[in-house]
Here is the input.
Amino acid sequence: MRDLAIALIISLLTISCSRKEGGIIIAGSTSVQPFIEQVAEHFMEEHPDITINVQGGGSTAGIQATMNGTCNIGASSRNLKIHEKGLTVILIAVDGIAVIVHKDNPIDDLTVEQIQGIFAGSVTQWNILGGKDESIIPVTREEGSGTRGAFEDMIMGETTISDACLVQDSNGAVREIIATTPQGIGYISVGLVDEREKAVSINGHKPSLTNLISQKYRFTRPFLLLLREEPTGLCKEFIEYTLSEKGQAILKEGGLIPARDIQDN
Amino acid sequence: MVWRIGPKTNQKIAFGVLLLMTVITVIVLFFIIIYVFKNGFGQLTWEFLTSKTHDMGKEGGIFPSILGTFLVTILAIIIATPLGVGSAVYLVEYARGGLLRRIVSFGADCLAGVPSIIFGLFGFIFFVIQLNLGWSILSGGLTLAVMIIPTIIRTTEEAIKAVPHVHREISYSLGGGKFDTITRVVLPSSLPGILTGVILGVGRAVGETAAVIFTAGSSLGIPTTVFSSTRTLAVHFYILAREGISMPKAYGTATVLIIIILAINFIAYRLMHRFMKRYY
Amino acid sequence: MVKDKIAEKLFLLIALSAIISLLLITFFIFQQGIPLIFKAGASNFFSTQWAPTRGHFGILSMIIGSLMVTTGALLVGIPFGLACAIFLAEFSSSPLQKVLKPIIELLAGIPSVVYGFIGIVILVPFIREYFGGPGFSVLAASIILGIMILPTIVSISYDSIIAVPKTYREGSFALGATKWQTVRMLLFPAARSGIVAGIILGMGRAIGETMAVIMIAGNALKIPGSILDSVRTLTSTIALELGYASGDHRAALFACGSFLFLIIIILNIVAIKITGRK
Here is the structure.
């Protein structure tokens, strides 16, 4: 028994002596996360000796983690604020914010003012907007979310999101609630909308890829990778991969507008 | 509460109500497990248990999580058990009945009841950020260790206290010193009780989510060193379930998790029984 | 003997290490959190506005949230828990006891995320459909938390009732009382301190639960107007904002943590006073 314990301790110590060899830690936006995970998976297939760990936590969490060195690369779905400047910023794609409702919700289009009213708590019934006679259940993200930041900047403007909204801490969680709650409404990354819910058109424009590129649907935000200083070594390799044709194709397939396409315009 | 109904009828009514409530309770508790198992059992293939995770959890298996859970828990136990048992030994055998002992017991009881998210808060700021250990098995293991040390101290304390004083006296009268008495008489006798506490701590660690998600992280790769981030089974299940990534896989993960915990608790229960049988 | 002296020092060292690590956490939490309470001032800290990125650190709505959910959990857990315990202890046969009690205790080990999941999948839609509201509500959280603390209450209450000496029961029966009368007027009061201790333990668990609550309570900051409204607890706030909080915001989360810590300490003191333990 004692010998077993000693053996275990020694083996753990030996393992622990090999520190992070060939590894990158990416942390931040839950909007960016699934896409960067896919890129990372392909990257690791081509470079089997390199490990990439992807964490969520939200854009602000990722920015923080980059600034204090907890991760190598941060992921953000919003632009940096003034007090966050000083990091190296790399645009990898552009994404839109989609306002989503349940599949069976008869409403297909909303104006910006209507959305403001819903999330501010002044519009509380679907039938006011032409829908069913039911209460609206708005779902928002937590304050540190890049998606929320972008939503507040571009759609809410000066209006504050009401305290009565439900709060969830990831795109996936919001999507899951909307997909299963008939009276629900929320906002997520355009790239993450799937067939289980419906993205409404805003002021007449659907959040399609063409509309995003032509800016007819103007609610777009950048997907950024952040570093403390200029990328070197493994980080540089990974970022170059993400910006390469292969990497950008993966992002495009996922439903984003790759950075390349923007530069070409 | 007794109206014009006689005591015998009153009892019949009471019996009926109690029976009903008990049946409801048992059904609800069973329902939860059966519901998860029914939906998850089909997932338990060899593939599922041994493959890597792909596509955020939509595809592949849960091997990285099984390994990660194992590593984090083992680390926590290796750290917590010597510290916990050693402390309890000191408190009972050397610091008998003193103020120190009562303060430490009280403190351990309090810490055993502190919400796990607070340990997560502590672990994130202290281990992950300040000590720069990052999201890792090390951060997770240390946080869990700190979380279960109080429980181990308390259960070991009770187990050691239960050893009849006579045993110690016999040892002394045969010429044994204090150290020998402790290691050859007291500890072996209280071993089942101690093990019960340790195993219950393991059970708690395996099911823990709040403290682990902020310290060990949520990476899906196979952990290679103690500095690797990992996603334990409980965390993986939490993420799969709340994001609706894959319900079948979520059920499968939950099934594996529950089976592991039930097995652990069952072992602890049998041990505790053996321990009780010795002295009661 | 030399061996004994070394051994004593060794054990002391181990004990000190453990104690230091436990003290470390305690002080860390309070040291990070308490200064903020003074900085923000009592009127800010105990107000209902929680907007930490804008300087509002009011935790009152979350305290109320935690309180509502815990009370709800106790309203569910105590009646059923006690009923189970009494039934098992006094009204059921020995083989049934031997089988059911361990099973109930085993069920105490089901992780909280599983309870939360069942809540999302079954309870929340049910409440939304038949009672109204978003479904993510005080009611949902109370029921799930109540179920979670059932094994604790059953287990400890059962042990307390069984521990009452046989002579009490025999005396009561000799006087012609029925079993139920015995339970109600004799055993219950006699086992009261143990039962209350079990309830307090369950209460501590309910207050501290995080994951299940985040999944089913909706986390809206507004103080709930009814049990069908969404609610935010102290623990949920810490979990939701921990990842990105910095500076004063982070300190405010530690302040929430300190508050919870304090409550647990108070509960433990009450439990000791009631059970008369040393």
Notes: The first strand of chain C starts at residue 50 and ends at 51.
